[in-house]
Amino acid sequence: MSPWTPSDYNPDDFANRRHIGPSPDEMAAMLAAVGADSLDALIDETVPAAIRQAEPLDWPALSEAALLARMEGVARRNRVMTSLIGQGYHGTVTPPAIQRNILENPAWYTAYTPYQPEIAQGRLEALLNYQTMVADLTGLPVANASLLDEATAAAEAMAMARRQSKSKADAFFVAHDLHRQTIAVIETRAAPLGIRIIRASIDDLDASAVFGAIFQYPGTYGHVRDLSPEIAALHAAGALAVVATDLLALCLLKEPGAMGADIAVGSAQRFGVPMGYGGPHAAFMSCRDALKRAMPGRIVGVSIDAAGNQAYRLSLQTREQHIRREKATSNVCTAQALLAVMAGFYAVFHGPRGLRAIAQRVHLHAVTIADALRAAGADVAPDAFFDTITVKVGVGQAGILAAAVQRGINLRKVGRDRVGISVDETTDAGVIARLLDAFGIDDEARCATRPAIPEALLRDSDYLTHPVFHMNRAESEMMRYMRRLSDRDLALDRAMIPLGSCTMKLNAAAEMMPITWPEFAALHPFAPADQAAGYHEAIADLTDKLCRITGYDAFSMQPNSGAQGEYAGLLTIQAYHRANGDDQRDVCLIPVSAHGTNPASAQMCGMQVVVVKSAPNGDIDLEDFADKAAAAGDRLAAVMITYPSTHGVFEDTVREVCDITHRHGGQVYIDGANMNALVGLVKPGEIGGDVSHLNLHKTFAIPHGGGGPGMGPIGVKAHLAPFLPGDPREDGSGAVSAAPWGSASILLISWAYCLMMGGEGLTQATRVAILNANYIASRLAGAYPILFMGNRGRVAHECILDTRPFAEHGVTVDDIAKRLIDNGFHAPTMSWPVAGTLMVEPTESETKAEIDRFVTALLAIRDEITEVAEGRIAAEESPLRRAPHTVEDLVADWDRPYSREQGCFPPGAFRVDKYWPPVGRVDNAHGDRHLICTCPPLEAYAEAAE
Start and end of every Glycine dehydrogenase C-terminal domain (predicted)? Predict the structure, then answer.
């Protein structure tokens, strides 16, 4: 036989050799374990034939090299300009140490939300730094760990003010110089809540007529003014004051807290986070201490662990408002954790002296430009400003804008006769010279030395006094600090994260690379469309592929989280009903098993939530559903279902649920959380869905980033397309986010995923995800009850392990979750959708070896539960209750009734590369009783050490 044997192995086959974990031989072994003759047979047993799509997804796959070449070509179609448009988006310099060690580091971008605090101490500390930065700069004592964008944060603040105000008024005052996109989102959010919006000049504020007001500081056209009198008037009337502000400006300007503000909001984008054609960027919110329990979003707090050592955790009920379901005051389910971490590190990197220096340089550059223009006879406003001015140019507006573009600069069109100029960190003498040349000024500008800020508005308080902001900023020290924090965490670069409903799959390096290229990262979201041709090509092709995948006819890419997608989808349904004269349709049917954001989103849309029962097998109770749909009658607006079900099963009755809804004139919203079980097999738009949101940060490979960013675009059938969210720069647009395409830069990740997988690869990913889940269910079936199975004994892409029977022996689901940390695993989703259970989703990206390691760990834990159940060890003395075990436990005096080996090196754990949690089990109750949500003083660290 010739030594030359042709090979059928394709090293460039990304879908099958890089993205999908199990090899063909491993799949054969797994199929044997689950008792299926083939992968096709398993899928036929799992997915009802009646809902399978007829046509396969058929576009070809690209190799990684071909993908990057395609991306480079698309990037070249974007024109990178100097954008001095402002309006909440600014050029910034990302320190390379932060770009390389945070943004481009899978230890940071593949981590999950820190619900298991013991394995998230690094990013929790980084988020605490961010909160401290926001609280210090805004002058308010409590800040959250970020929101989605400035506009939605402002809308959340409006709703928060309404809940907390003592005023009986139904109106909210919006200052006329708020950013236009912020006004649009506030108006969208206010309408279904019955809030009347009053837009007027600050000087026309009638505090007695409103429950709250929002001011922009500095204003969108640059004005700065002391808001103390207006805020005092609001307080006298029982109303609350919200200030939308700029963190860099607050390095020089009097802080909102010093003016008496109740809430401050804004964007941390210019703290080292690229514009990215709109996002993602971390929005912030801070508030008075008395309002902290009403704040939406997540708050990182300081508690103690089982040994009394300081430990971080998510605090208060605000960490998940939507657990209140239809009683929720917000549907916030995510944050912008990765971007908040970047912004926090930017503050650590520069420290207060560095930030002040950057702010002073930006301000003096703006003064230099204003002085030069005035010297040339231009009408420049305002007199007091930080970084933004407007210039009255009359009928020459178009010519000035065009002349600036010719010189590589974008300016803002303001009205019919003015242009706006917003200076940023990247502005230098060259930019100033080109800018002035566009105005016909060729004299060299004299650098300003005196500020254009009234002395009474100059900040006189300290900020960022904590030692972390004064560390040695040598790059070696910064690099080590970032490494120390990442080493405290468990992310996908260490182990499988088997979270049901969260789809923690591979985020390929090739998918991530383009987002930091300047051609994508440096574009302003309001730049002229012809400068973003590459973005529009990418978004159009991604839209086309998502339509082919889902069976929908149109998509809106604007929602920048899954919960935002739900909200946008329901608003689209409402607008459709109103257009048909069906204003009375306000009932939304939601199964009891639905994710908590579903009823929260419906409540925010002003809908009445009616809960539908589940049948004993976990399916929707069809009889109860039909009865409640009939009872709603012509008031039925929508039904929200998840498919496959939240219980991890393909329900045979999904078409009937959709038919019943449509017979009563309602619309079907299919939650896209479980799309990883559908792609290539089932199209929600073909089985009766009218609208769905897709979690691109789940199924379509955008990484979770330790709690964000996410994207939740919505797909709709043709009859709903006219009612999708509009451009946030336009009145009455129904916009739900600040930027027209949401967090546009990360759409590139999902597009790259679709291109490299190809239609066949995407379908194979779904099939293997189902195989991996059924393999786990089969391996664990004798040790843990599998709570829900399909009619043919199969699960979908996830399975629910019932741990409730162990409670009678004193073993809780928490004990199992914490013990998995000792094995080097993140716990599955705990107590949802059923309390006391674990929902496991392995995804298609995990190899058989990693899944077997996970199974080994759970089987060993089951043996430990048996020891407790048989009375050989008390639950409170067992390794289950003492978990997780730290290095300090290992080296301390050992007085436990089990060995160090059993405690610290259980089956499934790596020995050489073992993950050691930095803290023991965290005391949640202690943290809520003693809320500390900014960096503790240095003495606290010393006390913890003692």
Answer: 765-885
CA-to-CA distance for 724 and 681, rounded, in angstroms?
Answer: 27
Residue recorded with tokens 């259980």:
906
Asked if 632 contacts 598 with a C-beta cutoff of 8 angstroms, the reply is no
Structure tokens at 604: 């925010």
Query: Six-digit token pair at 27?
Result: 């799949």
Are the CB atoms for 221 and 414 separated by under 8 Å? yes
Please tell me the predicted confidence (pLDDT) of residue 327: 65
Cis link prior to 451 (omega < 30° from 0)? no
State how far the alpha carbon of 350 is from the alpha carbons of 96, 115, 353, 470, in Å. 13, 30, 7, 9
pLDDT digits (tens, 9 = 90+) for 466-513: 999 999 999 999 999 999 999 999 999 999 999 999 999 999 999 999
**Six-digit token string for 677:** 């079980």
Query: Helix (H, G, I), strand (E, B), or coil: what is residue 620?
Result: strand
Q: Torsions phi, psi of 34, nearest 5?
A: -90, -5
What is the maximum span of the chain, computed from C-alpha positions, in angstroms? 95
User: CB–CB of 302/312 below 8 Å?
Assistant: yes
**Residues 6 or more apart from 177 whose CB is under 8 A from it?**
202, 216, 219, 220, 221, 223
Query: Torsions phi, psi of 54, nearest 5?
Result: -85, -40
Q: How far is CA 206 from the centre of its chain?
A: 37
The edge-to-edge listing of strands for the beta sheet with 837-840 is 799-802, 837-840, 829-830
**Cis preceding-peptide flag for 106 (omega within 30 of 0):** no
- Residue 377: helix, strand or coil by DSSP? coil
Per DSSP, which regions of 415-564 are E strands? Answer: 418-422, 554-556
Q: Report residue 472: phi and psi, to 5°.
A: -60, 120
Q: Which two tokens stand for residue 808?
A: 């009678």
Residue 109 near residue 507 (C-beta atoms within 8 A): yes
Q: Are 602 and 570 in contact (CB under 8 A)?
A: yes
State the Cα–Cα distance between residues 588 and 55, nearest whole angstrom: 33
Please check the confidence at residue 944 and state whether its pLDDT lies above 60.
Answer: no
Half-sphere exposure of 623 (CA within 13 A, CB side): 2
As given in the structure block, the two tokens for residue 562 are 């899954």
Give the pLDDT score at 945.
37
DSSP 85-148: --TT-------HHHIIIIIT-HHHHTPPPSSSGGGBHHHHHHHHHHHHHHHHHHT-SEE-S-BS
Instruction: Report the SS3 class of residue 367.
Output: helix
Query: Measured between alpha carbons, how far is 86 from 84 in angstroms, rounded to an integer?
Result: 6
Written as six digits, the tokens of 335 are 């944050």
Cβ neighbours for 828, distance < 8 A, ≥ 6 positions apart: 498, 499, 500, 801, 817, 838, 839, 840, 841
Query: Using one digit for the tens of pLDDT, what is the confidence trace for 801-846?
Result: 999 999 999 999 999 999 999 999 999 999 988 999 999 999 999 9
Mean pLDDT value across the chain: 95
pTM, two decimals, is 0.97
Q: Give the H or E element holding residue 391.
A: strand 388-392
Element (H, E) at 609: strand 608-612
Is 265 in contact with 285 (CB distance < 8 Å)?
yes
Q: How far apart are CA 118 and CA 305, in angstroms?
A: 9
pLDDT value at position 551?
98
Indicate if the pLDDT at residue 663 is higher than 80.
yes
Would you place residue 2 in the very low, low, confident or very high pLDDT band (cuts 50, 70, 90)?
Answer: confident
Taking residue 933's Cβ as centre, other Cβ atoms within 10 Å add up to 25
Q: How confident is the model at residue 85 (pLDDT cuts 50, 70, 90)?
A: very high
pLDDT, one tens digit per residue, over 258-267 is: 999 999 999 9
Amino acid at 34: V
492: tokens are 């996908």
* C-beta of residue 491 within 8 angstroms of C-beta of residue 107: yes
